[in-house]
Amino acid sequence: MKTICKGISNHSQKGEVLDMHFSSIKFNGKEIENNLFKLNNDNQKLFEISFNEDTLNDPIKDIRDAYLKLHLLSHKFVLPNTINLEGLFTILPNIVWTNQGPIALEEIDARLNESKFHGNNLYIRSIDKFPCITDYVIPKKVRIADSSRVRLGAYLGEGTTIMHEGFVNFNAGTLGKAMIEGRISSGVVVGNNSDLGGGSSTMGTLSGGNDVKISIGENCLLGANSGIGISLGDNCTVEAGLYITAGTKVTINENNNTKLVKASNLSGLSNLLFYRDSTNGMVVAKDNIKVSELNEALHKND
Amino acid sequence: MKTICKGISNHSQKGEVLDMHFSSIKFNGKEIENNLFKLNNDNQKLFEISFNEDTLNDPIKDIRDAYLKLHLLSHKFVLPNTINLEGLFTILPNIVWTNQGPIALEEIDARLNESKFHGNNLYIRSIDKFPCITDYVIPKKVRIADSSRVRLGAYLGEGTTIMHEGFVNFNAGTLGKAMIEGRISSGVVVGNNSDLGGGSSTMGTLSGGNDVKISIGENCLLGANSGIGISLGDNCTVEAGLYITAGTKVTINENNNTKLVKASNLSGLSNLLFYRDSTNGMVVAKDNIKVSELNEALHKND
Amino acid sequence: MKTICKGISNHSQKGEVLDMHFSSIKFNGKEIENNLFKLNNDNQKLFEISFNEDTLNDPIKDIRDAYLKLHLLSHKFVLPNTINLEGLFTILPNIVWTNQGPIALEEIDARLNESKFHGNNLYIRSIDKFPCITDYVIPKKVRIADSSRVRLGAYLGEGTTIMHEGFVNFNAGTLGKAMIEGRISSGVVVGNNSDLGGGSSTMGTLSGGNDVKISIGENCLLGANSGIGISLGDNCTVEAGLYITAGTKVTINENNNTKLVKASNLSGLSNLLFYRDSTNGMVVAKDNIKVSELNEALHKND
Fold this sequence. Notes:
The structure is a homotrimer. By secondary structure, chain A is mainly beta. Chain A is about 10% helix and about 35% strand. The first copy, chain A, folds into three domains: about 1-90, Alpha-Beta Plaits (2-Layer Sandwich), CATH 3.30.70; about 95-130, Wheat Germ Agglutinin (Isolectin 2), domain 1, CATH 3.30.60; about 135-295, UDP N-Acetylglucosamine Acyltransferase, domain 1. The longest helix of chain A is centred in the middle third of the chain and has 14 residues, at about 105-120. Chain A starts with a strand and ends in a 15-residue tail after the last strand. The interface between A and B is large, with 60 and 55 residues.
């Protein structure tokens, strides 16, 4: 496999690469194809690069690798957690994302000050290593209520709705239709027909969480303001407001005896309902009887 | 009653309606009046439509009905839950909301790609069936810290402040002054002088919740990160971090005996304080002694 | 000490001040220096003002004082809670912040309506007394994933990352590097090397909280969806999903006996781990063994 991509890059006044937009990508028989146009801006360059299996398996060496891999994820050519993203944070520069395109940090003070006098209304949407997905890739049959909350590198299945309180990091996303009003941390993948309630949390591995990447199966419901530090299999529900960490001691029923287990021992199991008994504060897992169903009208995002 | 409205619609290249802006509306003796101007864009059309009581009571038949009803709500001509919104999700197309106006989904890939080469800095704020309220209606004496979090169709009382973490869906809102740092789901109405703390949640009926529309009375406080799946009457407080679902078993005191009731049985009652006893995990409701008061300086939004 | 500042102000059609951008400030030997340019817009004016120690200690008298003090905080010339901000909410007008600059509330209806016909795509980012920090001040070695969530007047230490779910109010911030995925209320200061997990809450004094300003020391971790109404010293951890209010009764171990104390009695202490025992619902504080460490790659924000 050897594959050619074409696109356009933006550069700082010093010539450093700020970002790369991939207009066309061919990959494993699928392809994205948009026209290239003639350039008339000194700070832009056309590029044509090739990559192969090794590129995907190797750590990220430069900004081209980084933007390529983020595009491949968001175009759904590759699934989250299947390509090597080592080095991503180190390689990606911190960029000022503005209504006038990406700007280098060292140039922004002068640009912003000038803008005040010249009335060209520069404004800054974000100062970050990652841009928004919708600045590069528009996923089909998806709704994204606030594009500032989905990073390039997110993988969004058809029929997914990301509400205003939803968030999807890079190398993370949904495999099918899903209602996302909670936060999908980097590395977390959500199965078809699952629902992350408003403000719900999935513990990540980048910051403050632990080392195990978690996932959510199909037909799951994380209640509003709930959260998980373990994986869920299929048909699981976590009660609104309950946070299950890996270390939470959970009461289960086994052969008619109650028994305490660490939540991490239940990680990935299916058909569980997690709740906190409001009469005694015990966190309990039991068979999930009422499985969540999505409202079809909210996910036919044509 | 028969009423005339005028305004302007945007169309896709194929001629499909993308959105409708109502410049003037007369309704029940109140009126909104803004000038119409001559058009000079092939993708825009002037419209003049009439509607009557039946229109309000009938299901939504087309995009005109949809935008009319969303405008009526946000101009506060009608209260939430008083007009028929059946069919809204089916009728509204999924639109790309950009800094260059609404764009049809099928046109966006080419537009975005061209923009990269021609330096016109198209960017996408949202891909959704609903636009932001402030793209069409500017409610008076209101603050909205992040306009991307209030949908057209929200009803915002004078003196309302929607903070950055606040959110208001269509057909939902506040009846008077209110501090909203939490999420008001579709169908939920909040009474005068109430305060939804940061990250607090009101369970909706569209997705993941149950079937009963909930409401919040006057002088209520939802603590930060709390949530409710039941209605609150007046003068109620929910402790920070506590989520009351309809099924939560709540301990109350009746004639000096404690008693367990389902939270749904307390729905809509006034003067209650809900908290979880931090010595034994029991969720308790008792008489609310310290009623919440808003800070006046934060709600004089002239 | 007497200090000169220069900059540019925007005015409404009536001549009222909408905002002030400080291009140059000299203060205590440090200085910000950007060029002034010739004006060509009737609604803009150059200003040159001086201030001294008294200005900092006195209540805010006018918009100049207000913008001066917010700039001083965001340029990190002064620490939060060290200058007098009395009168800030009363003095600051409610402004419509748009992609065409600040607009007076009374002018916005006509401007928005005209924009629909003339295709100049006015849109409103916010209606608020406070603008975003990045419209005036770009803090160095900082990432801000969504600029709409950090107000002018925020104080952001080098190495701070504000994620999409993070929020920082005016007169609040971080003293060193920090991962902020939660909400820093006005008056709250976070020490070096601390981590506020996704959706975590710090109780403020402006609205719905109590009267005591809280702070967070160094090397602390607020778990996702947790919250505090008390201060934390150094090396403290609050379990994901747990909200500690001032009145929470906390079980501690003293000389091998358990004892109940109000959380406010633990305010500001170091080396504590707060969690809710998931077998009995008791909120417990004990010695914190595993202290949080930030992931270096996420905070080298060059």
